[in-house]
Write a structure and sequence with these properties.
The structure holds 2 protein chains of 2 kinds.
Chain A lengths: L1 H17 L8 H23 L2 H34 L2 H7 L4 H11 L7 H13 L4 H14 L1 H10 L4 H25 L20 H33 L2 H5 L5 H15 L6 H7 L5 H10 L5 H11 L1 H26 L1
Helix pairs in contact in A: 1-2, 3-6, 3-10, 5-7, 5-9, 6-7, 6-15, 7-9, 8-9, 8-13, 9-14, 9-16, 10-15, 12-14, 13-14, 14-16, 15-16
Chain B lengths: L1 H22 L12 H25 L19 H7 L14 H9 L7 H5 L23 E2 L2 H10 L10 E9 L7 E7 L8 E8 L9 E8 L13 E9 L16
Parallel strand pairs in B: 1-2, 4-6
Antiparallel strand pairs in B: 2-3, 2-5, 3-4, 5-6
The chains are: A mainly alpha, B alpha/beta.
Keywords (chain B): Membrane, Transmembrane, Transmembrane helix
Pfam families (chain B): DUF1980_C
Protein name (chain B): Membrane protein
């Protein structure tokens, strides 16, 4: 960070000399300034990096990034592999022909991707590239991080003695994913999606392994950059909004549902751990905690950043807003019946 | 050129992960112990990818201009990122990928410390799980009794038999100053269920001893600070300290461990 800020200062006198103009009379002063300023900046920036708040921010930011990195690698590797090795007609055969039927099937298929939400974005993107109808790919994108066995087991461990919470999470997540898929069929427009021709599949004359490696690398670098953006946003909220503010909302049942939904979006906890966080929010009603666990894997700051990078901003804004609303409604419905 | 940048970014990220997870235990400041194998595997994979990219870049360089179509399709300028998106190959470096440099360098050279008193002072103490009515075993006879902060909180606020009353207990944690002016300071531990973004805080208030510097790790011997009714939720989670000793900072600080009695 420091280096980029100091560079223009250091380059000042050198450029003038190169430009052929005579050195100004006070050039020793300039030289001195050029020598001192970067140092002073470095010390000031360095000092501020050691402020407790900045340190906490950096720790949280790194924590989100480090935690998500293996899953992001898994997701981008899978997406690269789908792109290079799986012929397009495979998905045509696996999924029902009618999009309205393909949506719930794809939602349930989310069970097979054992990872957190970072993995599912690149995979969904490559599915679209391989001819899967976007609505089905989005249902998969939303359900995979919430309904896979790892996450459900974690939920069962976090809420010992209340298996209905696991069931409610499974059903509410599937319902939300399917609803969003159908909603896309009904209202979605292809032009919201960034035209993506990166996933062209296997092209004759190229080594599949090279294609795999290059697609994997490119997706990882791209998604990794957006992951850092999301981690920074999440860390900012995490440090700027103390948890004690939240507890004041736990009294009212309606506000608490909305508030935990907002918290899930802002905290960006990975879906394998959010059950433990939800379990620790003991002041809140079970429905509110269910909402936290349904919204979290589908909409949060790092996901919005990843989706913006993958599908484009026009899509990410509309999709995330709609998903948040649908997820809250579904969790209240399912939670109201089951919990 | 672009390929070397790619190789560098991948390699740097991999080295950062390897340094934090394989060579040191600094990863424990950010995530749980169980992540270690995954982080090492990711680090190795990234380094391998970086090396493969560098290798293929150095091999292809001489043919780069001969219309192979891999090194030339890239457009520079403000639309560079877009160009990489729309081009038919993967040779471009997405501009946003440069951001990966920040966490990688931070992990390599300037790793931030584990969360401490700053975070703890801004968060309310975590509510501990409710024990069953007869879930409390008789306390061991050792004195002072080493106890975790969760156990202490449960004993003080939930144990109807009030076994903890009058017992000397030994706990360890780090120091968080009290801001409400009521005296004393907090013995604190931060717990994490997945990564440092979901930190929760355990606090026991310590009376009768001057506050050491914030973030110092200490072990405290003391007895329950009689305030409120012991065994109910009105009981203060606090001790009157008999002795406070400095201890080393544990490498895995995000857990509620028994103090070392050595």
């Amino acid at each position: 960070m420091q280096e980029t800020e100091t560079r223009p200062v250091a380059a000042g006198p050198a450029e003038e000399a190169v430009g052929g103009r005579p050195l100004p009379r006070f050039w020793p002063l300039l030289l001195l300034g050029a020598a001192l300023l970067p140092g002073v900046l470095l010390v000031l920036v360095g000092r501020s990096l050691d402020e407790p708040a900045v340190q906490a921010w950096r720790t949280v930011c790194l924590a989100v990034t480090v935690q998500a990195m293996p899953f992001l690698l898994l997701g981008t590797a899978l997406s690269g592999a789908i792109n290079a090795f799986v012929p397009a007609h495979v998905f045509g055969r696996l999924l029902p022909k009618r999009p309205a039927l393909a949506v719930p099937v794809a939602g349930v298929a989310g069970v097979v991707l054992p990872g957190c939400e970072c993995a599912s974005v690149p995979v969904a993107n490559s599915l679209i590239g391989r001819g899967v109808t976007p609505a089905a790919a989005f249902a998969f994108l939303l359900s995979a991080p919430a309904v896979n066995p790892v996450v459900l087991t974690a939920t069962a461990i976090a809420f010992p003695g209340s298996p209905e919470m696991v069931l409610a999470r499974l059903l509410a997540s599937l319902l939300t994913a399917a609803t969003m898929g159908w909603l896309w069929l009904w209202l979605g427009r292809a032009e919201w999606l960034r035209p993506s021709v990166r996933h062209t599949g296997h092209r004759p004359g190229q080594s599949r392994w090279t294609e795999f490696r290059e697609g994997f690398q490119h997706d990882f670098l791209h998604a990794g950059g957006f992951l850092v953006v999301g981690a920074m946003a999440a860390a900012t909220f995490n440090v700027a909004v103390p948890r004690s503010v939240l507890e004041t909302f736990s009294g009212s049942p309606w506000l608490s549902v909305l508030f935990l939904a907002g918290l899930a979006i802002v905290l960006a906890v990975c879906s394998e751990a959010d059950a433990f966080v939800a379990a620790s929010l003991t002041g809140f009603s079970p429905v509110a905690r269910l909402t936290f666990m349904v919204v979290g894997p589908m909409v949060d700051l790092k996901l919005i950043a990843l989706q913006t990078g993958t599908f484009g901003r026009a899509f990410a804004v509309r999709f995330s807003t709609a998903t948040a609303v649908v997820a809250v409604v579904c969790s209240v419905l399912i939670g109201g019946v089951l919990l | 050129m672009k390929r070397w940048v790619k190789a560098g970014l991948l390699g740097l990220g991999g080295l950062g992960l390897l340094r934090t997870a394989l060579l040191t235990d600094e990863y424990l400041r950010y995530v749980k112990e169980g992540m270690r194998p995954l982080l090492i595997a990711s680090g190795v994979l990234l380094v391998v990818l970086g090396v493969a990219e560098a290798w293929s870049a150095s091999r292809r360089r001489p043919h780069g201009a001969s219309g192979h179509g891999h090194d030339d399709g890239h457009r520079h300028g403000p639309e560079g990122d877009r160009g990489a998106e729309e081009g038919h190959d993967h040779s471009g470096v997405p501009r946003v990928a440069w951001l990966l440099v920040l966490p990688a360098l931070s992990l390599l050279f300037y790793a931030p410390p584990a969360l401490g008193s700053y975070t703890a002072s801004r968060e309310p103490a975590k509510t501990v799980a409710v024990q069953d009515e007869d879930g409390f075993d008789p306390l061991p006879a050792t004195s002072p009794l080493p106890i975790t902060m969760t156990d202490f909180t449960q004993r003080v606020q939930q144990d109807r038999k009030r076994a903890i009353g009058g017992r000397a207990v030994l706990m360890s944690g780090f120091v968080t100053p009290v801001s409400d002016g009521g005296g004393g300071w907090y013995l604190t531990r931060i717990l994490v269920s997945c990564c440092a973004a979901d930190a929760t805080t355990l606090k026991v208030r310590v009376y009768g001893s001057a506050a050491p510097k914030a973030d110092t790790w200490v072990s405290v011997t003391g007895t329950w600070h009689a305030s409120g009714a012991l065994g109910t939720s009105s009981a203060a989670v606090a001790v009157d300290a008999r002795s406070v000793t400095k201890i080393g900072k544990p490498s895995n600080s995000y857990m509620d461990a028994l103090p070392l009695t050595s």
